[in-house]
Amino acid sequence: MSGNTGVDISRTFGALLIGSLSASFLSGAVTIQSLVYHKLYPTDEAALKILVLAIWLLDACHTGFIWASQWEYFIAFYGNEGKIDYIPTTLALSIATTGILTFLVQSFFAHRIFLLSKRKWSVVAPVVIFAVLRLMSAAATTGTMLHYRSFIQFRDNVRWLFTLGLALSSMVDIWITSSLFILLKRSKLEGGSLDGVIDTLILYTFETGSVTCAATVVSMICWIVIPTELIFMALHFVIGKFYATSLLVTLNTRRGLRDVQSRGSSSRSGGRRAAFVLDNRRATRISKDGFIGSSSQTRYQDVGKGTVTELQINVERSIQYTRDSF
């Protein structure tokens, strides 16, 4: 079949098959992370629970679209050489699903940037604008694929559209990672007792941001350099999974961050003691036995010097409150 049509099966449908298997494996990880979230954080606000549920449903739909397209390629169209270049509806819908999932995850991180920047719209506005453009590009890509129904025609007529979507996604990832890094470093320089937590957050930021950005960039390079092969589409299958995992891991690591913070607070307060202050003052009224007592303090008379030594006990208590969004 490959000799007659000029199509390298191993680099087209073979790549799609490997990409589908990898996406299914990552989809299982997304499901586990979702279950862990609902188990560990039952008291979270409704908005976060709805977001996690939406991410899981979109991921499940995305996996279903992927395998439905593989069914058409390997079962329904088996042996039909005229369908090798065909774009199934489910394959086109998988791109739109990835775009929606990516938009939700990037909006979540944009909200975190908005809070960390003390509600500065100038910092978060580029993320929102590029994320919306990325979503529109994904929708347009799906529409044009359904219109042409051919990889060759799609590549010859609107090749720039798919490139634009991947480029916008990479720009948003870079902006989010850079903004979070700068804001977290600035928070650390301001001082406080959250240095360990901030260091961990910086590490998580680089790990999650670099994975999604790297997958998007590699897919774009394959699309530009070898557009006749479907390696770019195989990589696109796993991009949405990386985004879903990055959001869920960010939410599920909050308990670990709390443990880091509590250990740091206990180690700093372990050597703290109550302050004892001795204050010498003149007695205004002294009883005959030389002793004055009260409910709040105790004074002892030094009969030889005619002075009173006052013993004060000051107890200091500090309460630290940290929001999960930080």
UniProtKB/TrEMBL annotation:
- What is the species listed in this Swiss-Prot or TrEMBL entry? Lentinula raphanica
This protein's source sits in the domain of life called: Eukaryota
What keywords appear on the UniProt entry?
Answer: Membrane, Transmembrane, Transmembrane helix
Q: Which InterPro entries match?
A: DUF6534
Bilayer-spanning residue ranges: 12-36, 48-67, 87-109, 121-140, 160-184, 196-226, 232-251
Is Membrane among this UniProt entry's keywords? yes
Domain (DUF6534) ranges: 170-255
From the Swiss-Prot or TrEMBL record, give the protein name.
DUF6534 domain-containing protein
State if Hydrolase is listed as a keyword: no
